[in-house]
């Protein structure tokens, strides 16, 4: 009806204005009005909390849009949105209107900081030192900036120069990214069948005999050189006593006695050797 007034909803678009711009303007105006009521009026704690909650609800779509920027980084988008919402609540409670009237200029960095802190503190499968976590973030931002300027990916040397750190630090920060997410051992390798668990070597059955082998090595070292040679020829070269005798210039009977004496000494010393296994 002609001459009747109209009411514009918070997200409505006025004639001649683009939707995104008008939406931001309305949001800023409504937020500023609520902040003015919080700080200009003597409101009781209950009313103040209600106004803060209203500010949070108004600006929640902005917090969600900030969270979306960090999607596909190994964290569920729903979790990121929750963290962003918590950052928005923190901003709404901590905003000081006397330092400025642009709430979102204060809230956006606060929300982004909460998201980054969430990644830094809770999302590492193998957490590197804080120094590397922070440097990794700087390396990522600098890589994006240099890539835009040059049209190519920067080298490690260029990143080190831009960040004023050593090339070793840049490489270490890049490698630390491998600890951000891990793959399940049940997952199949890329382009292959089976699972990563199938590629893991079976336990070495000889590990349990390592102490015995080390003890035997020490005892063998104390034997005379000729007896060590006879043992090697008999048990490693698999030669007969006659063949051993012909090789070292003694009779088969002498080889038998020397071999028996060497084995007896090994057995006696191994029984007294600390750390050697017992039957």
How would you summarize this macromolecular structure in one to three sentences?
With 279 residues, the chain is an all-alpha fold. It contains 11 helices and no strands. Helices cover 63% and strands 0% of the residues.
Characteristic key phrases:
single chain, 279 residues, mainly alpha, Arc Repressor Mutant, subunit A, disordered N terminus, disordered C terminus
- Briefly, what CATH class of the largest domain? Mainly Alpha
Largest sheet: none
Q: Kindly report how far apart the N and C termini lie.
A: 105 Å
Number of helices: 11
Quote the beta fraction.
under 5%
Summed over residues and divided by their number, the pLDDT gives a mean of 75
Point out poorly predicted stretches: 1-20, 275-279
Please name the CATH architecture of the largest domain: Orthogonal Bundle
Looking at CATH, the homologous superfamily of the largest domain is RNA polymerase sigma factor, region 2, helix turn helix motif
Derived structural class:
mainly alpha
Write the CATH fold name of the largest domain.
Rna Polymerase Sigma Factor, Chain: A
**Could you tell me the radius of gyration in angstroms?**
38 Å
Helix % is 55-70%
Strand tally is 0
The backbone outline, from C-alpha atoms, is: rod-shaped
Element order: H for helix, E for strand: HHHHHHHHHHH
Counting structural domains, the number is 3
């Amino acid at each position: 009806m002609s001459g009747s007034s109209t009411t514009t909803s918070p997200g409505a678009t006025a004639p001649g204005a683009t939707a995104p711009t008008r939406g931001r303007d309305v949001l800023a105006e409504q937020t500023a009005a609520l902040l003015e009521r919080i700080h200009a009026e003597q409101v009781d704690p209950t009313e103040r909390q209600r106004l803060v909650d209203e500010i949070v609800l108004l600006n929640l779509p902005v917090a969600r849009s900030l969270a979306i920027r960090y999607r596909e980084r190994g964290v569920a988008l729903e979790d990121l949105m929750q963290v962003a919402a918590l950052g928005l609540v923190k901003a709404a409670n901590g905003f000081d209107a006397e330092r400025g009237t642009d709430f979102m200029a204060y809230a956006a960095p606060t929300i982004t900081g909460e998201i980054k802190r969430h990644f830094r503190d809770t999302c590492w499968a193998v957490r590197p030192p804080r120094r590397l976590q922070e440097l990794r973030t700087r390396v990522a931002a600098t890589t994006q900036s240099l890539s835009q300027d040059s049209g190519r990916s920067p080298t490690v040397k260029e990143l080190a120069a831009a960040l004023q750190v050593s090339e070793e630090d840049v490489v270490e920060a890049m490698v630390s990214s491998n600890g951000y997410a891990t793959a399940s051992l049940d997952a199949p390798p890329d382009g292959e069948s089976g699972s990563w668990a199938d590629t893991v070597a079976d336990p070495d059955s000889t590990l349990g005999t390592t102490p015995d082998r080390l003890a035997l090595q020490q005892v063998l070292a104390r034997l005379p050189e000729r007896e060590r040679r006879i043992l090697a020829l008999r048990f490693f070269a698999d030669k007969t006593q006659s063949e051993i005798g012909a090789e070292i210039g003694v009779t088969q009977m002498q080889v038998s006695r020397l071999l028996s004496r060497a084995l007896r000494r090994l057995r006696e010393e191994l029984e007294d050797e600390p750390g050697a296994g017992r039957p």
